[in-house]
Specification:
Elements (H helix, E strand, L loop, with lengths): L1 E8 L6 H18 L14 H6 L9 H5 L9 H8 L2 E3 L11 E3 L2 E5 L26 E7 L2 H13 L2 H25 L1 E4 L5 E4 L2 E11 L5 E14 L5 E2 L4 H5 L1 H20 L4 E4 L1 H5 L10 E5 L7 H20 L5 H9 L10 H15 L3 H14 L8 H12 L3 E2 L1 H12 L5 H15 E6 L3 H8 L6 H14 L1 E4 H16 L10 H15 L10 H12 L4 E6 L5 H14 L3 E6 L2 H11 L6 E3 H10 L8 E5 L7 H14 L2 E6 L12 H8 L2 E4 L8 H11 L3 H10 L3 E4 L2 H14 L7 E5 L2 H17 L7 E5 L5 E5 L3 E4 L3 E2 L7 E2 L4 E9 L6 E8 L4 E5 L6 E3 L2 E3 H4 L4 E7 L7 H7 L3 E10 H10 L7 H14 L5 H4 L2 H16 L7 H9 L11 E3 L2 H23 L6 H37 L1
Parallel strand pairs: 16-20, 16-21, 17-18, 17-19, 19-20, 22-35, 23-33, 23-34, 34-35
Antiparallel strand pairs: 1-5, 2-4, 3-4, 5-9, 6-7, 8-9, 9-10, 11-12, 13-15, 14-15, 14-36, 24-25, 26-29, 26-32, 27-28, 29-30, 30-31
Helix pairs in contact: 5-12, 6-8, 8-15, 14-15, 15-16, 19-25, 20-21, 21-22, 24-25, 27-28, 29-30, 34-36
Length: 1059
């Protein structure tokens, strides 16, 4: 049971199918009971019990439903059409009738200025293809585990009221717990350009109940649609700003999980086991208590093996279909099941339940058996021991991947980890205690000047003050004390060693060495000479005092070359030089390029383990070269630097903060670049052509829009209409490229895209006869089955051992190709494959085992960092949200780079920016077009990236007479995708007690604001209200006069006493 996902919605028509089914089912039931009735109005009070008995009848939740007069209404397909298009029919009894307007559909209240227009005949005018699509709402997917879903389907065959009780329980949780938290976080924007940021007073949400998955297996879940409308405290309707709801979705998840778990235990007598995060389950180095709890489900023993097999058989069919489309993984499955109802089964709930009943009977599984097994399990089921605060903190930071968090994010995590051990109420209290003990309030230093007037209490305008208070609450972050301590140790311990001379040599001596080294490396026909940045970096490493120094080198600037020289000098003077990097491939590349031996380099994980165990010993004569240091997180930096400091060794950090950031939390490499001696190496020499070097420099310097334009002008940007065309184009270009397979690569950001591209490449290779028909199926560690044939390119996704007689170590990112398939002499079936690795080794994998293997025609940008290829082909993923990916992807090549876009991809990226403000240039152009053509440009449009983009697309040509540049839409997205550097606690200012008091007071003020609204008396007529206002003013004036007289009397008394 969990909140699986949420997304902005621009089309909500797919719910009409369920609503039509509900209407038909209810009308049929009513006709049986009232055969003489000719017309059945489902809002007739006589039929209320029929509505209540239908578990699939959506309820309209939130105070706005009551204000609109909808709280007891039946949600018909017609009413849903109105609501989802931004309109609501109202009667005179509605609180909002005064805001209604006459429309071809009758008296209607308009939710927002961007509501769908109504045609004269009463139909809605939906946007044509390419026209502006407005955000209709935000959909949250709340789902339940497959074991619980299967058990509920079984119990419903004996007692049909089970579904009603379950649905009622869920709706109660939504009404009493989830919606109030959504309201707490709901905001509206008013004023010019939406600068007046305020709390919402009322919202409207509708949960839709579904019981099946795409595979027609039992799968209980809700689509909770939060409509894009909110009522302000001024009584008017506005677009709903969901930024804070999305940022704190984990709080909604924890609330839903806690209340549903306790409700199901109470109502149905169930017991639950925790469900752990997939990544943690796959991590063999984590103990069970260190794995993150993400949900709860019934114990596996409650579902017989044959029933689990029945479900898994159907799920494999889904996996096969998903694989053909390039989708993989649990989350991809769920989203595929949930996000397109029209593509699901056409079976009604009644038909599905009948089908499941037959299957359960066929397997011999009965409700009685389940209840007996449940009783047995309950007798031995015990709460888990509570986790320590340290374990929960480590789990949070590992998955949160940022040093800073909101209060809701941390509390939600702690509560979920404690639920297996205690009640929800106890978990809430304990989480609050841990939070207050371990977390401190902070604010990004970049924002402190903005909030200074609020914290100094110098704002006099009440509206401005309120807006700033809400923004302060939105931007406030908390840091864990342990993170602060680690960051402080990293900086202060190295600062304390800043003047150490043990690794410093005379500058003249080093200068002579550099000249000698250049002569030694030169050949008769090729003179070797360091670039200026390389020369300065070698001098810095060998002549600067201190325990740490940084080489900040551009991609392809020859960092390995200069490190080789520095290592040679250190070794010649009696020092031991070791190498490390976050990945085994990068560590191995560093060792090969600098001449290190096999025992002198390890990836950082292994390095720390060897140092902890004492199997590797450093001393005062040890130097550690750390390549790609920007990809290391705070924990890794802390542990390595502890070992460095304990023995007085030296650390040479190499990398570039503009490239890929750490996967974990913290950006210490960037911080150390600022605090300690750093030498830039900017002369790029990887790319052959000068214009390509300049293009890479533009990416590195944050000028991505210019870099993309340069590629386009040189014919290296391919833009197709559809994503299918883009996929076909990149596969064709890759296979037509003249470089050997190991010297060319396709790059993408997501594993889904990688899977899809690899499948397409293999299909083309088989059709052209370049891959043989004989192939073997390998069970892979990521729970996927992949087919491999002789000649297939392969890459390892994790470290593992080979199955040779002499076992070999195979590292994450190692690449090669299938060279042979071994068949069993007894059965004739494949039993093993031989791989020829790109480093020359040959190794064997047993097909009876699972392996961390996938195809390597396309790899992720993360796996490519540190590599160099002749040709690279960049398939821009639709979720690329950082320029780090583009910089790395566009700097791997020597000779050729091509970048692939599609209109479909750009549209999908734009939809993900919905709710974000457009760029300044987009707003300026839109306002200019509106003035030139005398067009209505609602403020709400200028608050939304996607709506402003659609406005520009619709009116640009008519205004200017020119077609838009093919890259316009993409470059706007690039402008939004800022280079997001990972932060450390040094980037935040710890706020004092006064600021914390302000934070707590504002938090309580919002709670009190909502409470007062719920306890206010009914609306007062305007005439009576005017009299009350006048009376109130008179009363206030009288009270002020009395207070003034009292103050004067007190002053006179004090003056007399003084005399």
């Amino acid at each position: 049971m969990m909140l699986r996902n949420y997304a902005s919605m621009t089309n909500l028509e797919y719910h009409e199918k369920q609503l039509n089914y509900n209407s038909t089912s209810l009308l049929a039931s009513i006709a049986d009971q009232f055969p003489d009735e000719q017309c059945h109005d489902l809002n007739d009070p006589r039929f209320a019990e029929f509505l209540a008995s239908n578990p699939y009848n959506p309820k309209l939740l939130g105070d706005l439903a009551q204000s609109l007069g909808l709280d007891r209404k039946f949600l018909s397909p017609e009413l849903w059409k109105d609501l989802s298009n931004g309109w609501c029919p109202v009667s005179e009894s509605s609180d909002l009738f005064s805001q209604a307007q006459d429309t071809p559909r009758g008296k209607m209240v308009q939710f927002r200025k961007t509501a769908t227009p109504i045609n004269p005949d009463g139909s809605y005018r939906y946007p044509a293809k390419g026209e502006q699509k407005n955000r209709l709402g935000t959909e949250f997917i709340f789902c339940f585990g497959e074991r619980l879903s299967t058990a509920m389907a079984l119990l419903a065959t004996e007692d049909p009221s089970i579904e009603k009780r379950f649905s009622q329980l869920c709706n109660d949780v939504f009404r009493q717990a989830v919606v109030p938290e959504m309201l707490n976080l709901a905001r509206i924007r008013k004023g010019q350009d939406g600068t007046d940021y305020q709390c919402a007073a009322e919202i409207l949400g509708i949960p839709f109940f579904h019981i099946d998955s795409r595979s027609e297996s039992p799968f209980l879940h809700f689509h909770f649609d939060l409509l894009n409308v909110a009522r302000g405290y001024d009584g008017k309707l506005y677009s709903l700003c969901t930024d804070e709801i999305g940022a704190n979705a984990s709080a909604l998840d924890a609330i839903f999980m806690r209340h549903m778990k306790e409700g199901l235990e109470r109502e149905f007598g169930f017991v639950f086991d925790s469900v752990k995060h997939d990544e943690d389950v796959a991590n063999e180095f984590l103990q069970e208590q260190e794995r993150k709890t993400v949900s709860f489900d019934l114990p596996e023993s409650l579902i017989p093996a044959q029933v689990r097999d029945w479900r898994s058989t159907r799920e494999r069919e889904i996996q096969k279909a998903l694989k053909a489309s390039g989708k993989s993984g649990y989350q991809a499955e769920e989203l595929a099941r949930l996000t397109s109802r029209d593509e699901k089964t056409d079976k009604s709930p009644a038909q599905l339940k009948a089908m499941w009943h037959q299957e359960f009977q066929r397997m011999g599984w009965t409700p009685t058996q389940f209840k007996q097994e449940l009783s047995r399990v309950k007798a031995t089921h015990k709460p888990q021991p509570p986790l320590t605060a340290e374990v929960m903190e480590e789990t949070f930071l590992r998955h949160h991947k940022d040093v800073a968090m909101t209060e809701s994010q941390y509390l939600a995590h702690i509560q979920k980890q404690l639920l297996p051990s205690m009640s929800g109420e106890q978990a809430e209290r304990e989480a609050t205690r841990i939070f207050e003990q371990d977390c401190v309030l902070s604010m990004s230093k970049e924002q402190m000047d903005y909030f200074k007037p609020l914290l100094d209490d110098t704002i006099t305008d009440p509206n401005h003050r309120q807006s700033m208070q809400l923004r302060f609450m939105r931007e406030a972050r908390f840091l864990h004390r342990s993170t602060i301590a680690k960051d402080t140790y990293i900086s202060s311990s190295l600062k304390a060693r800043e003047q150490e001379q043990g690794f410093r040599f005379d500058r003249d001596q080093v200068a002579r060495f550099i000249l000698d080294y250049e002569r030694q490396q030169s050949e008769p026909d090729r003179k070797f000479k360091f670039a200026l940045g390389q020369r300065e970096a070698v001098q810095m490493i060998l002549t600067e005092p201190g325990a740490v120094c940084n080489v900040a080198g551009r991609a392809g600037a020859g960092k390995s070359t200069l490190l080789k020289a520095a290592r040679e000098f250190y070794v010649a003077h009696g020092f031991k030089v070791f190498g490390t990097s976050t990945s085994s491939t990068a560590s191995k590349g560093l060792a090969e390029s600098t001449g290190m031996g096999s025992r002198e380099f390890h990836n950082t994980t292994k390095l720390i383990r060897l140092l902890d165990e004492g199997k590797l010993k450093l001393d005062r004569q040890s130097v550690l070269f750390w390549d790609e240091a920007g990809m290391a997180d705070t924990n890794t930096f802390h542990r390595v630097i502890q070992h460095i400091n304990n023995v007085g060794a030296k650390l040479v950090l190499v990398g570039e903060k503009e490239q890929l950031q750490s996967v974990g939390f913290g950006g210490n490499f960037s911080q150390l670049n600022q605090d300690f001696v750093t030498t830039p190496v900017r002369e790029i020499n990887r790319q052959v052509d000068q214009w390509q070097r300049e293009m890479v420099e533009d990416f590195a310097s944050g000028r991505a829009h210019q870099a993309v334009r340069t590629l386009y002008e040189n014919g290296k940007v391919i833009i197709t209409q559809s994503d299918e065309q883009r996929l076909a184009q990149i596969v064709n270009d890759y296979l037509s490229a003249n470089s050997p397979a190991k010297d060319k690569i396709i790059l993408a950001t997501t594993n889904d895209d990688i899977e899809r591209i690899n499948l397409a490449v293999r299909t083309q290779l088989k059709q052209s006869g370049q891959l043989p028909e004989l192939e073997v199926v390998v069970q892979c560690k990521d729970k996927q089955e992949r087919a491999f044939a002789k000649g297939d390119r392969v890459v390892f996704t994790k470290n593992q051992k080979s199955d040779d007689a002499d076992t070999q170590q195979l590292n994450n990112s190692d690449t090669g190709e299938v060279s042979e398939i071994f068949l069993s002499k007894l059965t004739g079936q494949p039993k093993a494959i031989k791989l020829k690795m790109d480093d020359g080794r040959e190794t064997v994998l047993d097909l009876g085992k699972s392996h961390a293997l996938r195809h390597a025609y396309a790899v992720t940008v993360h796996k490519s960092q540190g590599q160099t290829k002749n040709q690279s082909f960049y398939f821009v993923s639709s979720n690329t949200n950082s320029l780090h990916h583009a910089y790395v992807a566009c700097s791997r090549h020597r000779h050729e780079l091509k970048l692939y876009l599609s209109e479909d991809m750009v549209g999908h990226m734009e939809s993900k920016l919905d709710g974000k403000a457009p760029t300044a240039s987009m707003k300026q152009v839109a306002q200019w077009i509106a003035r030139e053509k005398n067009l209505n440009l609602p403020t709400e449009t200028l608050q939304s990236f996607s709506e402003t983009r659609a406005f520009l697309d619709q009116h640009w040509k008519a205004t200017t007479g020119n077609e838009p540049h093919p890259l316009d839409r993409f470059t706007c997205i690039v402008e939004m995708a800022k280079t997001n550097f990972k932060k450390t606690s040094h980037d935040y200012e710890i706020l004092d007690g006064k600021a914390r008091n302000t934070y707590e007071a504002l938090k309580m003020a919002r709670v009190e604001q909502i409470r007062r609204t719920h306890t206010l008396p009914p609306t007062i007529p305007d005439g009576v209200k005017a009299q009350l206002v006048q009376h109130n003013l008179q009363s206030q004036q009288s009270a002020r006069l009395k207070q003034l007289a009292m103050q004067q009397a007190q002053q006179q008394t004090r003056s007399t006493m003084h005399r």
